[in-house]
Design a protein that fits this description.
This protein is an alpha+beta fold. Helices cover about 35% and strands about 30% of the residues.
């Protein structure tokens, strides 16, 4: 199972743009026959950043589910309503889990801590091994399940860690546990030259639909 994501930057009145995005998630879920989750980035990304995510078996499965939307009048009409809310083109991604599984979407109101970093040239095997080790350590330390994925497209060698929590208190507890753990700090220091300098980015997102 893979994770497909479509990222947008919304503008205009927040209540109106959010309502449109929620409506799009519901419309896509109904027409695709699978649950499409909508996430809002709260920190670490431009205000108004959202992502629609859906589980797929691969590119062929995604095309089979999403292909008919191009000819669906109702979906296209709802899509057109967002012309005043969307700034610039969408960004699509498809990620494959290297550690953990892409399970059922978490409940609305859940949080996700998403961290991305790009592997340096010649460091692929070492970086993936390090990434899995860190994901396992954070999971055992904080109780927050952390999945490691490889982005199939876009910047080559991009790894994505996703840690999930049912509430904000869980996010705080995980941060406190890792930031105060000497072994975790040592693992981060040991990353050395495994990743492209400056490529690391972390975003906190909340599922809103």
């Amino acid at each position: 199972m893979q994770l497909f994501s479509r990222q947008l930057l919304l503008t205009g009145p927040p209540a109106e743009s959010a309502a449109w995005a929620m409506g799009m998630a519901a419309e896509a879920s109904a027409k695709m026959g699978t649950e499409v989750a909508l996430w809002s980035a709260g920190m670490g990304a431009p205000v108004g950043s959202v992502a629609f995510t859906v589980r797929v078996e691969g590119v062929a499965d995604l095309m089979a589910k999403a292909g008919p939307l191009a000819e669906d009048a109702g979906y296209q009409a709802k899509l057109a309503e967002g012309a005043d809310f969307v700034a610039g083109p969408a960004n699509d991604s498809l990620a494959t889990p290297l550690h953990g599984e892409v399970g059922d979407p978490p409940a609305v109101g859940s949080f996700a801590v998403v961290t991305n970093a790009t592997i340096a040239n010649g460091k692929f095997a070492e970086a993936v091994g390090w990434g899995i080790d860190v994901a396992q350590h954070v999971t055992s330390l904080s109780g927050m399940p952390v999945m490691l994925l490889m982005q199939e497209y876009g910047t080559f060698g991009t790894l994505t860690w996703i840690g999930g929590s049912p509430d904000a208190a869980g996010v705080d507890a995980s941060a406190a546990a890792t930031n105060g753990d000497a072994d975790y700090i040592a693992k981060l220091s040991a990353a050395g030259d495994l990743f492209v300098p400056g490529s690391g980015q972390r975003v906190l997102a909340t599922r809103i639909a």
